[in-house]
Design brief:
The protein is of the alpha+beta class. It has two domains: 1-60, no CATH class; 69-128, no CATH class. The chain has two helices and five strands; from the N terminus they run ββββααβ. The strands form two sheets. Strands 1-2-3 form a three-stranded mixed beta sheet, with no helix packed on it. The protein has a two-stranded antiparallel sheet with strand order 4-5. Helix 1 runs antiparallel to helix 2. The longest helix has 22 residues, at 102-123.
Length: 135
Amino acid sequence: MDLSIPTNSALTRYSDIVGESNLVIDLIFLCNGLSELNCHLIHPDWNLTSDHVSLTIIIPIKEEFVQSSKFSLLKKSEEEEMFVKEVVTIFKSLDTLTLLNQEFLEQIVNSLVSKIDQAWNANARKVNIMKHSKK
């Protein structure tokens, strides 16, 4: 448990009972150890009918790219069948006799990746990702 330091100094409780203390420990639950969450605001004018005031904190939200489409092959489709046939052909045509050193291996692997990418791009179709899409 850590102490969050308010950015403004104010009471967090205003009692209606005469003689009762306005001091009280209010709790705010946040992720421990994050410096950007280490200060909160006290809003004495937001208490309305409650005897406690509102505590708020600004939580930074980073911008994130959410993918809305992807390329896919439908199971048992003609496109999937063509892609698999092309990949099998690519592997069958590999010349492994030239694998004499690491440089040749890297060239063959790069060529293999490029040819499989070409087969994928030729056969895959763009589909929109929706809330009902399978993972």
